[in-house]
Amino acid sequence: MPGKLKVKIVAGRHLPVMDRASDLTDAFVEVKFGNTTFKTDVYLKSLNPQWNSEWFKFEVDDEDLQDEPLQITVLDHDTYSANDAIGKVYIDIDPLLYSEAATVISGWFPIYDTIHGIRGEINVVVKVDLFNDLNRFRQSSCGVKFFCTTSIPKCYRAVIIHGFVEELVVNEDPEYQWIDRIRTPRASNEARQRLISLMSGELQRKIGLKVLEMRGNAVVGYLQCFDLEGESGLVVRAIGTACTLDKLSSPAAFLPACNSPSKEMKESPLVHPPSHGCRSTHNSPIHTATGSRLTQNFSVSVPTLIYTGMGSGSAGKEGGPFKALLRQQTQSALEQREFPFFTLTAFPPGFLVHVGGVVSARSVKLLDRIHNPDEPETRDAWWAEIRQEIKSHAKALGCHAVVGYSESTSICEEVCILSASGTAAVLNPRFLQDGTVEGCLEQRLEENLPTRCGFCHIPYDELNMPFPAHLTYCYNCRKQKVPDVLFTTIDLPTDATVIGKGCLIQARLCRLKKKAQAEANATAISNLLPFMEYEVHTQLMNKLKLKGMNALFGLRIQITVGENMLMGLASATGVYLAALPTPGGIQIAGKTPNDGSYEQHISHMQKKINDTIAKNKELYEINPPEISEEIIGSPIPEPRQRSRLLRSQSESSDEVTELDLSHGKKDAFVLEIDDTDAMEDVHSLLTDVPPPSGFYSCNTEIMPGINNWTSEIQMFTSVRVIRLSSLNLTNQALNKNFNDLCENLLKSLYFKLRSMIPCCLCHVNFTVSLPEDELIQVTVTAVAITFDKNQALQTTKTPVEKSLQRASTDNEELLQFPLELCSDSLPSHPFPPAKATSVDYSSFADRCSSWIELIKLKAQTIRRGSIKTTMTVEKASPVGDGNFRNRSAPPCANSTVGVVKMTPLSFIPGAKITKYLGIINMFFIRETTSLREEGGVSGFLHAFIAEVFAMVRAHVAALGGNAVVSYIMKQCVFMENPNKNQAQCLINVSGDAVVFVRESDLEVVSSQQPTTNCQSSCTEGEVTT
Amino acid sequence: MTSELDIFVGNTTLIDEDVYRLWLDGYSVTDAVALRVRSGILEQTGATAAVLQSDTMDHYRTFHMLERLLHAPPKLLHQLIFQIPPSRQALLIERYYAFDEAFVREVLGKKLSKGTKKDLDDISTKTGITLKSCRRQFDNFKRVFKVVEEMRGSLVDNIQQHFLLSDRLARDYAAIVFFANNRFETGKKKLQYLSFGDFAFCAELMIQNWTLGADLKELKVLVADKDLLDLHKSLVCTALRGKLGVFSEMEANFKNLSRGLVNVAAKLTHNKDVRDLFVDLVEKFVEPCRSDHWPLSDVRFFLNQYSASVHSLDGFRHQALWDRYMGTLRGCLLRLYHD
Asked: Residue B11 to residues A766, A781, A948, A966, B7: CA-CA distances in angstroms?
């Protein structure tokens, strides 16, 4: 009997009227855990009952504590007939099971009914007494901490990052059981909610056990998903990264200005001086590898792409014995693991050594009934297969590990597409194993760790590349090779040098498919997939070049399957990495040179494209400093000379504008537009409108190039469903509809949030689903963050000027950064000779014949590392704090509801997270049989999403928190039947409940009581009830 | 391609003040979009009409959901569904309960019943205020009335506590409730020149100083007793001779004016006669003085003297009652005396 759960029901308020005669309600409460139920007294005739119950005590196994939710049901007492249910509250008590999280859950919870929505609130207090030392309960995995955050949580330090953990559980979906034909929709919904809650608990416990086996104490980047497979069942699966975390309890952790990347560097023991010991490897353009075709059980694995660069030249030999040792150790550390995958997207400094490129794998499966829920072997095998494929892709790229790893599914009837993707990488072994390596290698490692450009250097062998690629010497260190374009699924490393700002880049694509059954359908889908992958990729490339950028971060490609079409949506954040070469322009070529008007048309298009590139460069402030030809050839200048050079260039760089992109010496991307498809593609390139002035957007955590965030944030979810006119639907019309849908949605967001200008939409997350034949649903969740305009204006100056300016005004500590960079960013190698390579798309020859990718590499410019990194030193600006104080004036005396912030990011601008209270993972179903009366589909879903937000906030507040970070809406499944006046929606959300303290408040607190600890200062934060 | 569903939900509920105004003014989404287009918002923001339509729909839906809570403002503060900063909550409530001058003049003093509600069509046509807005304003009046009708204690305080209105707005509602409760006639043609502000001012004085049921009949002796009336007149005339531009007119009219003012007091004891208070004040006092072109300063001089002289009437025993009555009446008359 390892635990005692204690629950007290205090009061209710705003209850609905259940007795029409008296306009009142006789409410009582049932408290259920496992198989035990307690009841409160009936509180007669009140809409605001005060039960003040005794403590209901449940003595339970810790296994149950982890699996079961606490279920609170509010009912209206009826003497003569059955009691009417008012609604329910499910409380996940997991946060009470580990010592560092919440100690009590206490507060007002919305009473939720799946038919009526929120109906009043109930005040509940929950406590858990664990009888013994937590160690005794290792079997139950109590005490393992879970985080949705895909980086090391802010108030922890990673001692060891163990690696991948995964688990899945399956069950029959209550909605499809025979009993569902006779029970009410409410009972069916509740059975489903309860089952999923149970399954989540079980899954989490099982993952916890795996973590304990690995001797870890936490799971970071925990991602749990549901697959509603319909008739064949319900799958709940989760992946995460097992870690051993240490709580940072030193007062140092309390210094203000902490959520900035550079601050983390300072906190970390791993901060290293820039060194020249980069490993030698390279990446460059893009490539495609064909995966093996597995056909078993009607499943089809699809040839997948590996998005990376490629190289030529000799493998770095200058690394010496140390490098070999490093590689060896990494290898052995990782080879012990079945899957060397990491769900993290941001890493402790020094963790990421090189990035190879994006690896992805997809597989089309036919669902069949899960016969034995206790042995979910089939689903396990499916995923194992995919993971194996990812692993081999990574190997082909010379990488031992995959970071930024995620898995997803798309289901339509009996067809399911399983997808996995990540970024192949070489990691530093230091974090991967127990202390043994650490002692002897630490020092040398730090000396030899890559510089801020190191992650761009190719990890694979130049002579033996998995695909053709273009390599150049790194524009930063000049020693190692880099690809000309880099695609990744991770966040931009905090120490990466970026020129200008980044922007959201999306590729959108639809393909019609014939309706078919079973195997035929699966085959049709798997035949279409490679083309979609290829086209999505081409679109991304074109759009990236159009923006004048050379790298994508946070790449997420979603392929959605419907009855008669496939949709592809790729989102990523484009940036200009200083270490990579300047992207070439896009050149258009026609195939029929005799036609005069055609020529004219071509040159017109060309001009438009060139203008757009020039405009984008200006818009995103991409003005890499030009270096004249003589310098390229010159030997490495002496340090003094260098600084002189820097200055003189900065003066001239203002005048240098790159307008002439189409010809001359730059690399160019040639598009031949002889077929209409290509024409359409060129057109669609130009239809994407940039955000209005004052707006930026990205799908990564933070916007490259903006760092002066102020404290105002607005998280939102927007959903749109369009109905396609079914008449003569063509791929072309479909693409246009889909493109318009996404563009209009973005335009609406910019308009709605215009009062926040200047602001940036961060972590923009689009999900596409095809609920019915002619319906397309797009769901977007993102957060708008304001930033300081004055500082933003400054960025129009050249990076060098800016850094000098800052260096003179900033304090000494910060001064180090620009200095380091200056010496670090100098050309040390001449450029490789110009050459032209054509990319081999032979695997898709039929489709690709009209596309010729010609990349002419010209050693014409050499880019220094920009010094913009200094801008990442984030300090809450005085203006921001001032604004905040005004905005969050203490609520007026009447108000008792505390503010709970929600954000998909792992941090809160201008604030320090002092405590993680536990994971929030909630699943809700809402159904209506009076759709029109509830304002139609829009009214219904609007109200439901608002209710979901409210329930998340209430749970966080009850845990004593004031924010949810790393919030995501994992699922929003909406079904309607307007003829029957019915609709149903399922929503699954998750995030980390935290306590944060404003940096401005923190200064006060820490100056008053410098030794204050985490717990006590939490109370100084925004008070919640 | 048609949009089936289109929503935006923020963790902090977005409130667009301009759209809120249009919603309160009762415009349909289509009309509101047209008005917004005319305001030049598309040029300012570079948005398209479709974006504006979607945005307007979305705000309207939010307001519609909030409306239920606005009916009981304390609920808006305690509810968990919409996270709205306190300053915004206050703005929502204040604007929701704000009303149009033209509308309130039409229903002031009327019974807040279904019958009146049926007349809202006419009021809408007459005032140019949309029927929807008229309904909201009428329902607000009625709701506040119902809640505070039976309550003890200060009317203004009760309204403020239950509807969280600003002091100014709570006072206006107190006047509306007071007028509705007493059913004062305000719609007659000769009262048309009076603004809601005039009535509200009078209502406030009356609420503060008058308690219903005081035996105002006792004052009647001032005009019924001929000697007392003559004595009163001579006291006033002596005091004002040479100080009043309209002295002769005053002297000639004194008895009529005095009868008018005292009879108003007597009528206040009969519930059904109370309704005519403002009609009487205008007919019996404001109009006679105005037709003789009394300047406001002379009216003030006269009322002060008229009220004070009663203290020197030895035979009159209801000095305190008189002071309370005249104090308020003087305030009201001075406010009502304008063109």
From this structure: 18, 11, 10, 14, 13
Contact (CB<8Å) B8/A718:
yes
Q: Smallest CA–CA separation between B166 and chain A, in Å?
A: 13
- CA–CA distance, B311 with A164 (Å, rounded to integer): 98
Cβ(A865)–Cβ(A452) below 8 Å: yes
B58 contacts on A by Cβ (under 8 Å): 752, 942
pLDDT of residue A404: 94
Other CB atoms within 10 A of residue A1000 CB: 18
Mean per-residue pLDDT, A649-655 = 31
Nearest of A94, A47, A107 to residue A224 by alpha carbon: A94
CB atoms near residue A829 (< 10 Å): 16
**Bridge partners (DSSP) listed for residue A161:** A243
Compare B247 and B31 and report the one with higher pLDDT. B31
The helix (H) or strand (E) run that includes residue B306 is helix B296-309
Residue type, A640: R
- Alpha-carbon dihedral A572, A574, A579, A582, rounded to 10 degrees: 130
Residues in chain A, how many?
1025
Q: Which residue has the tokens 């600003």?
A: B166
DSSP B55-77: HHHHHHHHHHHHHHHHTSHHHHH
Tokens of A28: 């009582």
Closest CA to A64 of A35, A39, A88, A29: A35
**In which residue are the tokens 């069949």 written?**
A368
Single-letter amino acid, residue A747: K
Among candidates A14, A692, A724 on the partner chain, residue whose Cβ is nearest the Cβ of B75: A14
Mean pLDDT confidence for A675-703: 77
Q: A with B: how many residue pairs have Cβ under 8 Å apart?
A: 143
ipTM of the complex: 0.90
Q: Which two tokens stand for residue A426?
A: 């070489």
pLDDT tens track for A807-862: 333 333 332 333 233 333 333 333 333 333 333 333 333 333 222 222 222 222 22
Higher pLDDT, A338 or B2: A338
Please tell me the predicted confidence (pLDDT) of residue A590: 65
Q: What is the pTM of this model?
A: 0.82
E strands within A52-176?
A: 56-60, 70-76, 84-91, 105-113, 117-130, 145-146, 156-171
From the CB of residue A755, how many other CB atoms can be counted at a distance below 10 Å?
Answer: 13
Asked if residues A123 and A12 have their Cβ atoms less than 8 Å apart, the reply is: yes
In Å, what is the CA distance from A94 to each residue of A266, A379, A951, B58, B190? Answer: 33, 27, 17, 37, 74
Q: What is the CA radius of gyration of chain A?
A: 29
pLDDT score of A51 more than 70 = yes
CA distance B175 to chain A (A): 25
Edge-first strand order for the sheet with A27-33 is A36-39, A27-33, A70-76, A84-91, A105-113, A117-130, A3-13, A56-60
Please state at what angle helix B247-267 crosses helix B296-309, rounded to 10 degrees: 60
Task: Among B3, B11, B81, B93, pick the best mutation site for testing chain A contact (most A Cβ within 10 A).
Answer: B11
Radius of gyration of chain B (CA): 26
C-alpha dist (Å) from residue A818 to A803, A804, A806, A810, A812:
7, 8, 9, 11, 11
Distance CA A947, CA A951 (A): 6
The pLDDT tens digits for A268-295 are 333 233 333 222 222 322 222 333 333 2
Closest CA to A1023 of A886, A899, A883: A899
Report the run of H or E that residue B36 belongs to, with start and end.
helix B29-38
Whether chain B has a CB inside 8 Å of the CB on A911: the answer is no
The encoded tokens of residue B183 equal 């059913």
Using the 8-state DSSP alphabet, how is residue B220 labeled?
Answer: G
The helix/strand/coil state of A472 is: strand
Q: What is the pLDDT of residue B97?
A: 97
Q: Are A157 and A140 in contact (CB under 8 A)?
A: no
